[in-house]
């Protein structure tokens, strides 16, 4: 691409070329990339766009183009590109001119007065990029010349440039690719990508044992009166909250028993009147919060007022916890119900995990918020959801130097105890937090003492580039490093020149410096040990049996990678001791560590945004199949409908494929001669609103 050698790339240009090469899939000619980069005045984004449009870089001015035998762009540089300096960059303090008794004192004072530590041994300066064969801030696994920040931004640019609106189109897989493998979870897919967030919430709720069992055990009351014990007269609800819950019942039964790997949830979107998320500027978490809040109300309302299994109409706290001021009574009119807790992420480094963030909100320092205004949980719910709120604007990025302010990973645990936030444990938790704050104050004072031992503040005037003004700047100098440098001088540089008095002074100064260094080092080690012990004590102060009676386990995590489209929202769910990731129709098993540390989308202000926890239960109960009611067969033959849909699905498969399918969960029962077709048949191309919920649910589209 273009003739002649070109001027070698600067370190910054080399990093930009590597970034462009990664964006283009690693097949880009470095010289080609450099010409395009220079043609666009080293603007990385413009160069990336130009390369995608086929720009060859022709016409880029290069004053070195006609000079022969220059270093090729892709040739590794052996050794430093510039010779090392023949003398120190800063003047070395002369410790040999005067032999008086104040020599050591003057040396230390002069060392502390310098703005850079004086070193007599190996240099501890930051590496010069032009000297390094491999940049020191590059990840070993990343392209040469790119820092971790640049790699993250490269991935963001690559994803943005490669985004295609066709990703939002609903792709219907061939039947033979829709066979469920073993116990792999079934994916839920809406035709419109704007409902993906809602489908993921419904999908996640199935894997919350308490929700799955509550829905499976529910039976609606008769719509036309009559004896409630006579279940043969009951018909499924066709409107209102009951219709929504009946839709969940059908959906969950098919998720448990169907042999298809994916199910359509368009009918469910109609039943729940879900809104579309079609504005990339809006956080999907906000739409998720509204959908989840509406769903929780519908389910709890139905379980209380339209439930044959609850004739007394007792309230069922499946989703909604009750909270209020700690001195209020549970029946106080000022208490409120809440099904999803909003948690601000990244407010401070000290509160960058779920429990700390909740403590900052519900148990603040009494010096800032009086105890009388403290909120506590009056009655916990079986399930608790958290919406993680991040600021909308992405981190800053300086294209000139390739540095950004990266968001720290927000931690959420596998299990969390809510006792410390509950009314019944308020006094004990408050007592322990008071002791905790005292220890934290002790840690703060010890760390300040350590800093005073190791660093010395030096004030200096920094002259501005205009030469007419300056700024007073305070810098921290490493005192211990200065002492070690002085000791290095006396041990390796200073000469006695056969003068016994001078030799004795050198030896005496060595001993004094060693004693000072040993004392400082010993004191610092002692502080570090004490701080570590105090941190361990303060970290486990609330981990006592009295505050560990209400354990909640993580069931699902929903993630946004920062871009728009159905494949840019995905979830993790726990099923039978394993974690599964669902992206559109693709379901794969992942390790738990991936679930707890997914940093996808952080560089775009996104990431994990919705967490579902529920009360811990024994593993065998958690894994047990939901108790689908036998009387459902007398209502809409729901369980037989699943079997019927499975049989229809198998009949549509090619014979050689169908013969290899094993149906362990729901083998077809006796044929249903007068079966009613599903709302959406396998052959249907369009989705029509159902006229009656008597029809079996679609499990084929």
From TrEMBL:
GO cellular component assignments: cytosol; nucleus
Protein name, UniProt field: USP domain-containing protein
Biased composition, class Polar residues, residue ranges: 112-122
Gene3D superfamilies per the UniProt record, alphabetical: 6.10.140.100, Cysteine proteinases (3.90.70.10)
InterPro entries attached to this UniProt entry: Papain-like_cys_pep_sf, Peptidase_C19_UCH, Ucp6/RUP1, UIM_dom, USP
Biased composition (Basic and acidic residues): 87-96, 690-701
Pfam families attached to this UniProt entry: UCH (PF00443)
One Gene Ontology MF term: cysteine-type deubiquitinase activity
Lineage: Eukaryota, Fungi, Dikarya, Basidiomycota, Agaricomycotina
Region described as Disordered: 55-96, 111-148, 659-701
Domain USP: residue ranges: 186-616
GO biological process, any: protein deubiquitination
């Amino acid at each position: 691409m273009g003739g002649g050698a070109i001027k070698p790339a600067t370190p910054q240009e080399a990093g930009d070329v590597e970034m462009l090469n990664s964006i283009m899939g690693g097949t880009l000619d470095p010289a080609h990339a450099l010409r395009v980069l220079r043609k666009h005045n080293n603007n990385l984004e413009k160069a990336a766009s130009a390369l995608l449009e086929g720009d060859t870089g022709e016409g880029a001015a290069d004053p070195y183009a006609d000079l022969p035998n220059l270093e090729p762009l892709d040739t590794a540089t052996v050794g430093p590109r510039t010779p090392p300096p023949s003398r120190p960059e800063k003047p070395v303090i002369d410790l040999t001119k005067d032999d008086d008794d104040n020599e050591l004192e003057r040396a230390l004072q002069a060392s502390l007065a310098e703005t850079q530590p004086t070193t007599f041994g190996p240099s501890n300066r930051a590496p010069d990029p032009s000297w390094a064969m491999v940049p020191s801030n590059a990840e070993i696994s990343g392209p040469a010349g790119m820092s971790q920040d640049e790699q993250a931004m490269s991935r963001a640019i690559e994803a943005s440039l490669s985004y295609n609106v066709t990703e939002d189109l609903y792709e219907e897989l061939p039947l033979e690719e829709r066979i469920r493998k073993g116990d792999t979870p079934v994916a839920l897919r809406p035709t419109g990508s704007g409902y993906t967030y809602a489908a993921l919430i419904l999908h996640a709720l199935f894997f919350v044992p308490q929700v799955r069992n509550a829905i499976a055990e529910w039976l609606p009351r008769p719509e036309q009166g009559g004896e409630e014990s006579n279940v043969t007269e009951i018909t499924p609800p066709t409107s209102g909250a009951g219709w929504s819950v009946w839709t969940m019942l059908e959906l969950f039964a098919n998720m448990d028993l169907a042999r298809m790997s994916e199910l359509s949830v368009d009918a469910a979107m109609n039943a729940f009147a879900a809104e579309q998320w079609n504005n990339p500027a809006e956080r999907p978490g906000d739409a998720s919060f509204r959908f989840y809040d509406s769903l929780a109300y519908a389910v709890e309302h139905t379980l209380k007022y339209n439930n044959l299994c609850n004739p007394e109409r007792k309230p069922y706290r499946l989703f909604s916890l009750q909270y209020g001021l700690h001195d209020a009574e549970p029946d106080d009119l000022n208490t409120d119900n809440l099904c999803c807790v909003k948690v601000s992420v990244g407010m401070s480094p000290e509160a960058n995990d779920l429990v700390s963030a909740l403590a900052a909100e519900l148990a603040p320092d009494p010096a800032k918020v009086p105890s009388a205004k403290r909120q506590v949980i009056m009655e916990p719910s079986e399930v608790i959801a958290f919406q993680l709120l991040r600021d909308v604007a992405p981190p800053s990025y300086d294209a000139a130097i390739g540095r950004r302010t990266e968001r720290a990973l927000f931690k959420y645990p596998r299990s969390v105890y809510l006792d410390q936030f509950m009314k019944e444990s308020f006094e004990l938790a408050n007592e322990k937090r008071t002791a905790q704050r005292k220890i934290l104050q002790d840690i703060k004072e010890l760390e300040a003492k350590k800093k005073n031992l190791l660093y010395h503040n030096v004030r200096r005037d920094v002259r501005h580039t205009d030469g007419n003004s300056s700024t007073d700047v305070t810098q921290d100098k490493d005192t211990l490093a200065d002492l070690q440098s002085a000791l290095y001088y006396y041990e390796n540089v200073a000469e006695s020149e056969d003068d016994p008095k001078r030799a004795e002074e050198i030896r005496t100064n060595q001993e004094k410096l060693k004693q000072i260094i040993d004392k400082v080092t010993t004191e610092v080690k002692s502080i570090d040990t004490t701080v570590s012990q105090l941190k361990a004590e303060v970290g486990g102060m609330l981990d006592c049996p009295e505050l560990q009676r209400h354990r909640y386990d993580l069931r699902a995590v929903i993630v946004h990678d920062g871009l728009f489209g159905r494949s840019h929202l995905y979830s993790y769910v726990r099923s039978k001791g394993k974690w599964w990731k669902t992206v559109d129709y693709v379901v794969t098993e992942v390790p738990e560590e991936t679930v707890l540390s997914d940093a996808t989308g952080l560089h775009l202000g996104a990431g994990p945004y919705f967490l579902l926890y529920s009360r811990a239960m024994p593993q065998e109960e958690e894994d047990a199949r939901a108790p689908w009611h036998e009387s459902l067969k007398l209502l809409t033959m729901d369980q037989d409908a699943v079997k019927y849909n499975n049989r229809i699905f198998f009949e549509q498969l090619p014979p050689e494929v169908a013969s290899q399918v094993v149906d362990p969960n729901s083998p077809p029962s006796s044929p249903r001669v007068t079966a009613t077709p599903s709302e959406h048949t396998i052959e249907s191309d369009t989705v029509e609103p159902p006229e009656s919920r008597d029809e079996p649910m679609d499990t084929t589209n």
